[in-house]
Amino acid sequence: MKKLLIVGVTIGTLLGTAACSNTEDKAEPKSEQVSEKTTKTEINQVKTINNIEMKITGDKIVKDDTLKTDQELLEVSFDIKNKSKSDYGVGSGDFYVKDKDGKKYLMYGNEDNFGAVIKTKEELKGKGYYAIPKGAKDLVVVYDKAVDHSKSEKTIEWNVGTPK
Is residue 33 classed as helix, strand or coil in its secondary structure? Predict the structure, then answer.
């Protein structure tokens, strides 16, 4: 009788353990699916190139009646600090936006686009404007200095996700 009881408890424990482990396996893919849908952004992440610290502090869709009906205007806020030993020129035209398919969207002509020469140890804050398709998702802002096409400098990118 004792042996039968021990065998029964052992079988019950094994079945319970197997049932719990199957439940955990089923739960994991759901959490992976959620993380795939939620894209992490790099807003407020500082990236440096040639001792120039660049940060995107925000992005949003703004109203603009001059665009085509299938476009929206993306406003990107920048904060750029010159930590180098010489002046550095930078502006909205040095950046572009690309979507998940790699299509590029260049600076949109807006009088509020930023651009200036930043003196050593100084900072420039400004906004850049880019015409993107309505409903564009998974966007990336790329720094690719417009004046220097030698490609001796690498580009840097920020994943800004889907603007609101």
Answer: helix
- Residue 32's φ and ψ, nearest 5 degrees, are -65, -40
Residue with the larger pLDDT of the pair 85 and 19: 85
Q: Are 127 and 84 in contact (CB under 8 A)?
A: no
**Residue 155 CA to chain centroid, in angstroms?**
15
- Domain co-membership, 8 together with 73: no
Instruction: Please tell me the pTM assigned to this model.
Output: 0.71
Q: How many residues does the chain have?
A: 164
Half-sphere exposure of 113 (CA within 13 A, CB side): 20
Average pLDDT, stretch 55-83? 95
Tell me how many domains the chain contains: 2
Distance CA 57, CA 79 (A): 7
